[in-house]
Specification:
This protein is of the alpha+beta class. It folds into two domains: 8-221, BirA Bifunctional Protein, domain 2 (2-Layer Sandwich), CATH 3.30.930; 229-271, SH3 type barrels (Roll), CATH 2.30.30. The chain has helices at 8-12, 26-35, 79-83, 85-100, 188-206, 212-221, and strands at residues 16-23, 42-49, 67-76, 106-107, 122-123, 125-128, 132-135, 138-150, 154-163, 229-234, 237-246, 252-255, 261-264, 268-271. The strands form three sheets. The protein has a seven-stranded mixed beta sheet, with helices on both faces. Strand 12 (252-255) and strand 13 (261-264) form a beta hairpin. Helix 4 (85-100) crosses helix 5 and helix 4 crosses helix 6. The relative contact order is 0.16. Residues 108-121 have low confidence and may be disordered.
Length: 279
């Protein structure tokens, strides 16, 4: 059995770990613990997740060997601030991946030059709004936040993180990839250990939302599609425009061809000008 453990920095910051050989959903485990009075700062990790879910209630397949982990935190009941924890999670996973597999950071251009131009180094890891991590343009990981109010004006937030370590789901309407597909020989336990330490560091910067300005800047530095045309599906509507930035609450800001600025709190981003109904 693969042993999952917290990183040293995470343990020193008084995080805890609950491991399950098999469970339906690590997010569900975290929410159940919150209802039972768990004070938070607890990771829930499983070797096999049988009923994972993604955004909009979609099922999230997780073969054995992939990483399924959820973190329960208890914060003041300010939903807009709590929602920015998704950016903390994305940055933490990005940092963890770069630490355990440094070769993932950049692809060297055909001319071998490590420059910043078109023929130079290209950052392979990018963060996609709101909560995905891309590797070479394919979805490597998804992040799902769920929250429930608690007594005394507190909010239980569970941040679920699923990473395609050994295999990526098939039949998706978008590209997906796994670490193993690209010859990266790390396992879920090693990645989780690095993730737990990275979270400890990035969450201190976030500082219950007071440091989101710094988190926002770091996230934008690694954002996929920034300055490019995107299509955003919001319910049955699709809005196209240039991805300008994210605002101080983490909302997507796009500029339409007519120059109209639109701020979007929730939606699905697709690169290019078309988002089909299947997407």
């Amino acid at each position: 059995m693969t042993e999952f453990k917290l990183g040293r920095a995470s343990s020193d910051s008084h995080y805890r770990l609950k491991f399950f050989e098999t469970t339906g959903s690590t997010n569900a485990e975290g929410l159940a613990a919150a209802r039972a009075g768990d004070p938070g700062r607890c990771w829930f990790v499983t070797a096999q997740q049988t009923a994972g879910r993604g955004r909009r209630g979609r099922p999230w397949a997780m073969p054995v060997g992939n990483l399924a982990a959820s973190l329960l935190v208890v914060v003041p009941n300010h939903p807009a601030t709590a929602a920015t924890l998704g950016f903390v999670a994305g940055l933490s996973l990005d940092e963890a991946l770069r630490s355990v597999a440094p070769d993932l950071a950049f692809r060297i251009g055909l001319d071998g030059v490590e420059g910043t131009g078109a023929a130079g180094r290209r950052d392979r890891l990018r963060l996609k709004w709101p909560n995905d991590v891309l590797l070479d343009g394919g979805k490597l990981a998804g992040i799902l936040l769920e929250a429930e109010p608690l007594p005394d004006d507190r909010l239980a937030v569970v941040i679920g993180i699923g990473v395609n370590v050994v295999a990526a789901p098939e039949g998706l309407p978008y590209p997906a990839t796994a670490l193993a597909d690209l010859g990266v020989g790390i396992d879920a336990a090693r990645l989780f250990e690095a993730l737990s330490d990275a979270w400890s560091s990035v969450s201190r910067v976030w500082n219950e939302g007071r440091g989101f300005k710094s988190v926002r800047k770091l996230w934008l530095d690694r954002a996929a599609g920034l300055g490019e045309t995107v299509a955003v599906r919001v319910g049955e509507q699709v809005f196209s425009g240039v991805f300008e930035t994210i605002d101080e609450e983490g909302r997507l800001v796009i500029r339409s061809p007519e120059g109209l600025i639109r701020t979007i709190a929730a939606g699905e981003v697709h690169f290019g000008t078309v988002a089909t109904s299947r997407q």
